[in-house]
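Appendix B. Chain record.
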Amino acid sequence: MVSKTSVAPLDRIKILLQVHHSTYQHFGVFSGLKGIVRNESFLALYRGNGAQMVRIFPYASVQFFTFEIYKKALNNLFPSQNNSTNHSLKFFAGSLAGVSAAATTYPLDLIRARLAYNVVMVSSSPAISANGNGSAIASLQLARPTIAGTLVSVFRNEGGFVGLYKGITPTLLAMVPYSGLSFYFFERLKHLALSKAPEFCSKEVNKDKRVLNVPSKLLCGGIAGAIAQTVSYPLDVTRRRMQLSMTAKESEKYSKNLVQTLKLIYQEHGISKGLYRGMSINYIRAIPMVAVSFSTYEIMKQYFGLSTGMDS
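Structure tokens predicted for this chain:
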């Protein structure tokens, strides 16, 4: 929850850039952040973070809890020889854990995206354009939406429960490489650090056990997050397009299905400005976020006396 709040402004501008919001489509990362403060307010940087906080607690709980369950079950089903660690199973355990967590909390993710997408201008502040010429921006929403109001609106106007799960297909598909690679590379890098450079990367808990020190935990988590984000990012863009497809008439074309939406994004904007739109800001926000998340998890496991060594 702390790590998500710390990168909430970057999360919001990432969403606005991903879907080419009419108000901020010509902005860059930092000019977009300045534009949000100028056009809306400083607190607007955190729009949607309330829904994120409601979502992230059960999401992270389910993800890490089910990872341990899936990891143990897979190790029992496919025992490794000579008691060696089978890291490939951790990819599948991580993928299943990500899918479980995303499916459990998906409606809150959709609501959070809708809130972050909504632009509410400060009436006394003129809108600014990306080039700073002060041109007016039309079609501004004046009502400030709430979590409950948005939830009810989607349920009533977009097909009931089906509407609350719009975009879930690319979300679950993205979880396979994202969550799987995150857990796999973190566990793999942790194992390599403990076995190849214990004098630099670890500290001794007792005579028979060593664990990674905090800087090494952060480094392993950051690298794992960067790799996973790079592979899964196009599906993240696709899910945002589908989640926000019903917010404007011109974006309804993105509501059909995963393949059609991916094809449209590529045809209209290409790879760098379409499928990977906002990727630079994603590295800035995601790498430290994943690093802190995994490090906190490992520290809490140590605190409760659970295994975090090479056998975990």
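Further analysis of this model is presented in Appendix C.
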